[in-house]
Specification:
Blueprint lengths: L1 H13 L5 H16 L4 H14 L6 H6 L3 H7 L5 H15 L5 H6 L2 H9 L4 H14 L3 H9 L3 H9 L5 H15 L2
Helix pairs in contact: 1-2, 1-3, 2-3, 3-6, 6-8, 6-9, 8-9, 9-12, 11-12
Length: 181
């Protein structure tokens, strides 16, 4: 019960811009540990806190230094759709920084993202397609994205009118980025 309250507090505090640097400095290890807790609610709050922190590019290196990418990638394949969606949001925030692309790929994020493209959860679709669109801006990642089997799910997501327009737009953007090079 206490871990749930700690994770929820970190989640709430991390959503305020003024708190992000201090939470990253003092709580990144705790957040990563909570992402590995095995309690769905704790993991969901922890990965949401991590996604909030990763909105600030300067904090990306902290997650990498503390070895938080592997737990993040694991949560991006989680059975819990909310945790999975938040993990995809965190990865999408990280992919804004091209310096992080190879780390994410090396840690196996592509398989998690490709799997999330066909998730019924809208946030999974949206943030997985946004992540792939951001990753596709670097030539080195494009080959890996194609090899991961992402093209067919991106096409299916982009063409299907029942999917959220934002997810469809990001899917098409990911495909278009691969065509530009």
């Amino acid at each position: 019960m206490v871990l749930r309250e700690v994770a929820a507090a970190l989640n709430n505090l991390s959503s305020v811009e003024e708190n992000k640097m201090e939470i990253s400095d003092r709580g990144m290890c705790t957040i990563i540990g909570l992402m590995l807790s095995g309690d769905t609610i704790v993991e969901r709050h922890a990965v949401c806190a991590c996604a909030n922190l990763m909105e600030t590019i300067e904090l990306n290196s902290r997650l990498i230094e503390e070895r938080g990418v592997a737990p993040l990638v694991a949560l991006a394949s989680n059975e819990d759709a909310n945790s999975r969606g938040e993990a995809c949001r965190c990865i999408a925030n990280l992919t804004v920084n091209p310096d992080v692309h190879q780390v994410l790929i090396r840690e196996g994020c592509l398989a998690s993202l490709v799997g999330s493209l066909s998730s019924p959860e809208l946030n999974c679709q949206r943030y997985a397609s946004l992540s792939l669109a951001n990753l596709a801006t670097t030539v080195a990642a494009q080959v890996k994205i194609i090899q991961s089997g992402a093209v067919r799910p991106l096409i299916d997501l982009g063409l299907n009118p029942i999917h959220q327009i934002e997810a469809r737009r990001y899917a098409v953007l990911a495909i278009a980025s691969k065509c530009n090079y």
